[in-house]
Amino acid sequence: MATHTISLYCVSAFNYKSERSENRLAVLDDVHGIDVISVFKDFLDLNKRDDLVRDEEDKTVFAVDDYWSISSGRCLVGIVNAGQYGVPGKIRDAKTGSHRFDKNASDADVTDRIFLFYSPKGKDEAILALHNIRNHGVKGVLTSGLKDLFRHKTGLTLRFEGLSYDKAAQKWLDAQVKEIKATEFKTSSDITDDLNGLGHEHSELILKPKRNGTFGKFRALKENKPRAITTLEQHSDKVKAVVEVDGNRRTFQVSGTPGMPIVKLEVEDEMIKMDGMPDFAKMEDWLVEVVNELCQSVYRSQEVYICQES
Fold this sequence. Notes:
By secondary structure, this protein is α+β, with helices and mostly antiparallel strands. The protein has two domains: 4-163; 170-298, no CATH class. It contains seven helices and 14 strands. The strands form two sheets. Strands 1, 2, 3, 4, 7, 8, 9, 10, 11, 12, 13 and 14 form a twelve-stranded antiparallel β-sheet that branches. A two-stranded antiparallel sheet has the order 5-6. Strand 5 (89-92) and strand 6 form a beta hairpin. Helix 1 (36-46) packs across helix 2. The longest helix is centred in the C-terminal third of the chain and has 19 residues, at 280-298. The protein starts with a strand and ends in a 12-residue tail after the last helix.
């Protein structure tokens, strides 16, 4: 099953002309009378098309399938088509190995991705959530065109900064780690020989604490990576931490360097259909929950949140 993750970004516009440091970030719903939501809608409408926008340098393609507004128009949710091309090959059945058809250099493997953009009224930062499949996302193709259009309309440049853990929802960082998962875990050769007879594709190691216990706070796991996590990283593809927040599971990737600051959130298995793609209606509800948890940290207010009514 394809690995689906969400990358989270803070979006802002630097106002170079302001002499007061507290006004260096422009209020996004009134940038010289222009609302970032309106610019985003214009960008989406320009790219809502039957053909694909091609990036010849990165060999990527992009088009908007559909989008809609919620939360009194301050939040945009949509589906984009994105993929890569440029390398010829063969499409074969993964189960039987039989040849289906030849793939030309101009053939693009295009999949649907969901996004959510929330820009509260009167705030100088917005939140953008982007859907990745197998670590391939749409940030480059989506944000480059949006930056160009925003600069053309306002004279300012939009910045997209990966949401760092020090700015993430405090309830995530303070949550107790309930499970640690190591995907594609590589066991010792003698055990591997015994297990190969099962015909499985890969192994996932799941570690659970003692009964009614935890592995401690997620904050401690990120700030001071235990030796055990480093060992797991050496023998697996990815290491993940599962925390529980207000009764909801949140799964984070913890692989990488100890100082890795960017939040990458796993899409929970119950949102994935049998064909390996997410149920986008369920995923929209989940994204709203995730971003609302973030709002308390980003905006330091209980009053700022997404309402799912249009």
